[in-house]
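Q: Please design a sequence for this.
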């Protein structure tokens, strides 16, 4: 399978799910697009895993220890400074 963008793969997966949910495709066609969906799903999972690894590398401290914390949209900067008192 040629390189595919995550967003494009997800959009195609949504289309496949919609087509399968309708239930009006012949069995051969249903199996064909189901197989395509499985391949796209695996591709998306791999892309997400790769992205997670990159993020973990980026947030490692100088000693190589990961400093994972929950993301919040209003997260403070990396120094933990806050504007509230």
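A: Design:
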């Amino acid at each position: 399978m040629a390189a595919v963008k995550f967003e494009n793969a997800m959009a195609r997966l949504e289309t496949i799910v919609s087509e399968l949910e309708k239930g009006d495709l012949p069995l051969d066609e249903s199996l064909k697009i189901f197989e395509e969906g499985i391949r796209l799903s695996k591709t998306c999972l791999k892309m997400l895993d790769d992205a997670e690894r990159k993020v973990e590398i980026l947030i490692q401290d100088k000693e190589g220890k990961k400093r994972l914390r929950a993301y919040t949209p209003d997260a403070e900067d990396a120094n933990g400074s806050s504007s509230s008192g």
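Q: Thanks. Anything notable?
A: Residues 61 and 79 are 12 Å apart (CA to CA). The chain is about 60% helix and 0% strand.
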